[in-house]
């Protein structure tokens, strides 16, 4: 459940402890970890409504909301100022 706290669109009105680059890094690591762990924890994944959360996140990824990714991390390869890394890892999670 803790990993799913990062599988959502960034909220601007909340006071965040992380910079945008740090939050993006945490977000991508959480999705990558979920795609590795979810096949072994299927029951817990379903209890947390994992697919619904990931589909809502994927919907945000394809929206026109402004998002300025930094693309500096290992997981963030694919360019700056886009959501390609988030989309790629969300699709991996759904396949897993």
TrEMBL record:
Name assigned to this protein: Cilia- and flagella-associated protein 69 ARM repeats domain-containing protein
- Please name the InterPro entries in this protein's record: CFA69 (IPR048732), CFA69_ARM_dom (IPR048733)
Q: Which domain of life is it from?
A: Eukaryota
* Regions annotated as coiled coil: none
* Species name: Mustela putorius furo (European domestic ferret)
> One short Pfam family name for this protein?
CFA69_ARM_rpt
Q: Which GO terms describe its cellular component?
A: non-motile cilium; sperm midpiece
Q: What PANTHER family has UniProt attached to this entry? A: CILIA- AND FLAGELLA-ASSOCIATED PROTEIN 69
Q: Where is the Cilia- and flagella-associated protein 69 ARM repeats domain?
A: 1-96
Which GO terms are recorded in the biological process aspect for this UniProt protein?
Answer: olfactory behavior; positive regulation of flagellated sperm motility; response to odorant
């Amino acid at each position: 459940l803790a990993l799913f706290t990062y599988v959502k669109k960034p909220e601007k009105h909340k006071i965040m402890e992380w910079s945008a680059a740090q939050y993006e890094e945490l977000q991508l690591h959480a999705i990558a970890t979920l795609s590795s762990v979810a096949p072994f924890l299927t029951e817990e994944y379903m209890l947390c409504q994992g697919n619904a959360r990931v589909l809502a996140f994927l919907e945000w990824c394809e929206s026109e909301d402004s998002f300025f990714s930094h693309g500096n991390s290992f997981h963030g390869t694919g360019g700056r100022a886009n959501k390609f890394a988030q989309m790629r890892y969300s699709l991996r999670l759904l396949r897993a």
